[in-house]
Design goal:
By secondary structure, the chain is an all-alpha fold. The chain has helices at residues 34-60, 62-68, 81-102, 106-123, 134-166, 171-199, 206-219, 255-284, 289-313, 321-342, 347-361, 364-375, 381-388, 390-406, 412-434, 442-448, and strands at 14-17, 22-25.
């Protein structure tokens, strides 16, 4: 049982890892300081603006990408989105192992991943090599897969390293920065469509647009080079699930992890479906491509504003992560129903509903990570990467399915929105039922600022 007395070794520059009775040496005294934690958190936040560039540029330019790859309609490329989802799943799973192996060089790894994200984005408009038909769809799927591997590794790395930089004893202080991390992603997702309208969204403009997104996005990870790497926590159990120092067996895929994986699978279905197909849906209802880009800007802008709002209210005592998630899901359900009822007849309703969905999705992902890390037994960087892998799995299933349905009936988009919102609510209720809360000691509670 953990002692309630504060660890005296912290004053000597080392920290006692009470899960395996080993000593973990901090890289330098800056790691333990609030100034370091704030500064490195701002570097993570800045880098996520660039991460959003490479993700969003594909969705807003999909009609023109289809033309460059020899197709007439954006829906012809829907099958290629499976490559992005497979790459996201692979990258998410790979990053858990990468952080354990290269944790002492985590920031160098992040800069490398950011550069690879940028290079794969720049190459995308040229990757058809003149091939048409199903061959071009396969090539587009391949470049999406490569890009998604690096993007998802960077995404997981930023989330995990931010949590580790603050440590469990400063969890309450970390909450605003976790929301700001995802706020910055939304800021990048809001900025990029506005820049794209000025550069151009036509097929001949794409090389310049993707060059801006790739170079700008990759460069925003460079400040991480100037910070010491945070110390990563080890899991309390071995890879086989055998508890060290005892005979208790703990399944690697326990019910908490399964519930969290299903939760992220459902959340990603809503976010990625709207991000990928909102522009196309807007044009199919008789509006212009520029109005479609504006709808995406409103959608991601609402996510951005919602995350900023969540960061401002994160220190409210009664607003726990699960309560915030519940409020967000209900708001998203109301917004998707409004889109189903009136968006095909009114562009104003489409804009308002897009804003409502975006605002509701704002804090589900960051709060879900914190909620999962607090409830899944024996949480570590590897277990976090496992249940967050549900997000790219959701992206693998839902956007291609909605794209194929959208080619037959434009109402497939709002119907899918309502369906996914209901599924997200159902999975959240399952998560609350199955995910066991960790027990905390009185000392842990006092450190986290909770009772």
């Amino acid at each position: 049982m953990k002692s309630s007395v504060e660890n005296p070794t912290r004053s000597l520059g080392v920290e006692l890892d009470e899960t395996n009775l080993g000593l973990v040496t901090l890289p330098c005294t800056k790691v333990a300081s609030t100034k370091y934690r704030v500064a490195v958190s701002l570097a993570y936040i800045f880098s996520f603006i660039g991460l959003a560039f490479g993700v969003v540029v594909v969705g807003i330019s999909l009609p023109s990408i289809a033309i460059r790859y020899g197709h007439t309609h954006a829906t012809d490329m829907s099958a290629a989105l499976v490559g992005h989802s497979i790459g996201g799943t692979l990258g998410t799973l790979l990053m858990g192992n990468a952080l354990q192996k290269f944790g002492h060089r985590a920031h160098g790894l992040m800069v490398f991943l950011g550069s690879c994200c940028g290079l794969s984005t720049i190459a995308m408009p040229f990757f058809s090599f003149g091939v048409t038909g199903s061959g071009s769809v396969l090539l587009f799927s391949l470049i999406l897969l490569v890009q998604a591997i690096f993007q998802s590794m960077f995404d997981i790395g930023g989330n995990v390293l931010l949590v580790e930089a603050w440590g469990p004893e400063r969890k309450k202080d970390m909450l605003p920065y976790m929301n700001l991390l995802h706020f910055s992603w939304g800021a990048g997702a809001t900025l990029l469509p506005l820049v794209a309208v000025n550069i151009g969204l036509g097929p001949v403009d794409l090389p310049y647009l993707f060059l801006f997104a790739g170079l700008g996005g990759g460069a925003m990870s460079l400040p991480l080079f100037f910070f010491e790497n945070p110390t990563l926590r080890a899991s309390a159990t071995s890879e086989t699930g055998e508890q060290e120092g005892g005979n208790t067996k703990v399944s690697m895929f326990n019910r908490g992890q399964i519930a969290m994986t299903i939760f992220f699978f459902s959340y990603s279905g809503v976010e990625q479906t709207f991000g990928d197909w909102l522009t196309t849906y807007t044009t199919m209802t008789g509006n212009s491509l520029e109005e479609g880009a504006l709808a995406v800007t409103i959608f991601f802008g609402s996510i951005t504003g919602g995350r900023l709002f969540a960061a401002l209210i994160s220190n409210i005592h009664w607003l726990s992560p699960e309560r915030q998630i519940a409020i967000d899901i209900l708001g998203g359900l109301v917004s998707t129903i409004a889109m189903f009822v009136g968006s095909a007849r009114s562009i104003t309703v489409l804009y308002v509903a897009s804003a409502g969905v975006g605002f509701s999705l704002a804090s589900i992902y960051p709060m879900g990570i914190i909620f999962g890390a607090a409830r899944v037994p024996h949480s570590s960087s590897k277990t976090t990467s496992r249940f967050v892998a549900g997000a790219p799995l959701g992206g693998m299933v839902w956007p291609p399915v909605v794209g194929m349905l959208l080619s037959h009936n434009i109402m497939a988009m709002p119907v899918a929105g309502v369906t996914l919102a209901l599924l997200l609510l159902l999975c959240f209720l399952i998560m609350l039922t199955l995910a066991p809360a960790k027990e905390s000691t009185p000392a842990d509670a006092s450190k986290d600022g909770v009772e």
